[in-house]
Automatic annotation (TrEMBL):
Residues 1-142 form the N-acetyltransferase domain. This is GNAT family N-acetyltransferase. InterPro entries: Acyl_CoA_acyltransferase (IPR016181), GNAT_dom (IPR000182). Gene3D superfamilies: 3.40.630.30. It comes from Luteolibacter rhizosphaerae. PROSITE patterns: GNAT.
Length: 152
């Protein structure tokens, strides 16, 4: 697996992952409310890195709002979760950027919350957006010894 900076040529594949994952996992939303062009507006101005394999092409991405070190999106394509791709993207981010990092996770998204907790993130707050409760998470430990092996 290779992790690299996204290019404009990647955006169609990234938009497809963004749409299909949201429709299949965001069960608290109407799947019909998600559109292919949501990706462009949802990631505008963000730093995006992709995870890519020779066999499958792009299998995931992470987007970061750099001014606040805020992880806005971490998406792994359907059929590729549970293979270490999300962790590799987070580890790569921690190697490239100083941290600490923050993100918001829908409180009812138990799968994502479990993943973040296993990956060293801690809850530092909570709030509500659009009537939906979320947990504010932070990863402050970016010591190289805590990261898994490099993925690039």
């Amino acid at each position: 697996m290779t992790i690299r900076l996204a290019s404009i040529e990647d955006h169609a594949a990234l938009a497809g992952i963004f749409l299909s994952v949201r429709r299949s996992t965001f069960v608290w939303e109407d799947p019909a409310s998600f559109q292919l062009d949501d990706f462009a507006s949802a990631t505008e101005g963000e730093l995006i890195h992709v995870a890519e394999t020779a066999e499958n092409g792009i299998v995931g991405f992470i987007s970061l709002w750099e001014p606040e070190q805020f992880v806005h999106h971490l998406f792994i394509a359907n059929g590729h979760r549970g293979k270490g791709i999300g962790r590799a993207l987070l580890d790569d981010l921690a190697r490239r950027q100083p941290g600490p990092f923050r993100l918001k996770c829908v409180a009812g998204n138990s799968v994502a919350l479990s993943f973040y907790k296993r990956s060293g993130w801690a809850q530092i707050g909570e709030g509500e957006t659009d009537g939906r409760p979320y947990l504010l998470m932070e990863l402050s430990k970016t010591d190289e010894s805590t990261l898994s092996s490099p993925s690039t």
